[in-house]
Amino acid sequence: MGRRHPFTIGGMAETGGAAGGVREVKSAARTVELLEVLAARGDRPARLQELADELGVPRSSMYALLQTLISRGWVRTDVTGSLYGIGIHALLTGTSYLDSDPRVRVVRPYLDEASEALGETIHLGRLDGHDVAYLATRESHEYLRTISRVGRRLPAHAGALGKALLAERPDAELPEGPYEALTPNTHTDRESLAADLARTRERGYSVDREEGVTGIVGFGFALRYEIPALDAISCSVPVARLTPAHEARIVAVMREVRAKVEASIPAAGGSVDWR
After folding, report:
1. What is the model's pLDDT at position 143?
2. Which CATH class is domain 8-91?
């Protein structure tokens, strides 16, 4: 798996080194890298040799690390002991992250409000390096709908959430590319993405026309309770259900919801201001 270009967030680029000049603890870094590899594989379990090769560590060292993590619930294995996947403690820790985040708690009721008003799928996402992580989702009750899940990651250049957040940053922070193409409509070069972000800044929200998922259009709105914004909300709708009137209604409702969220965040003071 090749290393991708970093996006800069809050003045810090995503890198493989430790922050603040503190020497990285190799064993801790290797453990995190292993968990990230397993998480990225989703429902595709990995074999010992695959993991050893991907992380560039001896097979014996990888086996010992896997057994340690299995005993603590961070990794699971099949009945034969030859396949490995992410364990339940990763879910428990992720849930704790969401429960402890004051901004997620503030935004959730407004996602419900947008979902009820529009009948479409609503998301809350956060920029994390070159990706957007989905923190909350309210799915449409329509038969034809977009399906997503909390914890999903999507390249920032390829969706409404990510483009809304990239537009809050100078184009100089964009990597050179080429970018991964998720559909035939995905921006794969710096110039076309920058032009799209310019249009996003002009209108005040991003539009993803089948760039992340074929058949789905998304509208993204950065939440500017911090500068530059790290969080955004979006509405996703199947192309077959999107009319000009419905699009105008989505934009109007989501703008109103964004204003309510931004006005509510300061009222949640007294909480830890996480970096």
Report:
1. 47
2. mainly alpha
